[in-house]
Each structure stands twice: as structure tokens, then as C-alpha cells.
Amino acid sequence: MGRGGYFYKILPARDWRAAESSGVVPYAAVDERDGYMHMSTGEQVLETARLHFKGQTDLVALEIDPALIDGDVRLEPSRGGALFPHLYGTLSIDAVLRARSLIESNGEFSFADETRA
Question: Fewer beta carbons below 10 Å: N end or C end of the chain?
């Protein structure tokens, strides 16, 4: 399955484990500061990881079905004018289809469950 059509939220695996207990995905510090939850599209997620999570380990990207989000999602310009999904509200784990492990190699990220060409 491709990444098209889904939104992604990158966070430490420990935060995902906490969300599984609480039922709600926590805001990161940058989300708290900006007043919304930063997410990426399938086309943006690995670049977001490269730019903002370099050197961090034990990361997951939550694969989110936009149709299951119960909140105000706005596509707003960000990096280079590209539109990024921003959630104004809470993200229930009910909208999360799966948590995909991210791995970094030579400064580039990929999903652990995808083979590289």
C-alpha cells in the first residue's frame, strides 16, 4: 500500500505507547507552541523526518486516516509554500491505522517495513 491519502504524525515511540493508554495522541512541544498538531502527507513525511528529527531514534510515524479525524484539519502553507495538514483539536487513536517505525541511515529516513530500491 502506498502512502497517498494518509496523514502522518511523527513522534517518539514512548509517546505512542502513552497514547495507546490514554486514547489521545499527545501534542509535541512545537504543537503546543503553534497551537495545532503538525502533520504531514504521505509525500512529505520522510522529508519532515529528515529536516526535524535528524539523529533521533525510536521514532514512529502514525499513519492516520483523515476521514476518521474528529477535529478541524486545515491544509496550510508551510515549508516552501507546500500545504501541510494541521489539526486544531485532539487526535484520537481511533484515527490511527498503524504506527510505522522510522529508521535513519546516512541522514535519510525510511519506514522500517519498506525495502529500499
Answer: C
pTM for the whole structure = 0.91
Q: What is the pLDDT of residues 36-64, one digit of tens each?
A: 999 999 999 999 999 999 999 999 999 99
Q: Which three cell numbers stand for residue 92?
A: 484520537
CATH number at residue 104: 3.20.170.20
Residue 16 inside a domain? The answer is: yes
Q: Which conformational region is residue 45 in: left (phi greater than 0), alpha (psi within -120 to 50 degrees), or beta?
A: alpha
77-99 burial: b if 16+ Cβ within 10 Å, else e: eeeeeeebbbbeeebbbebbeeb
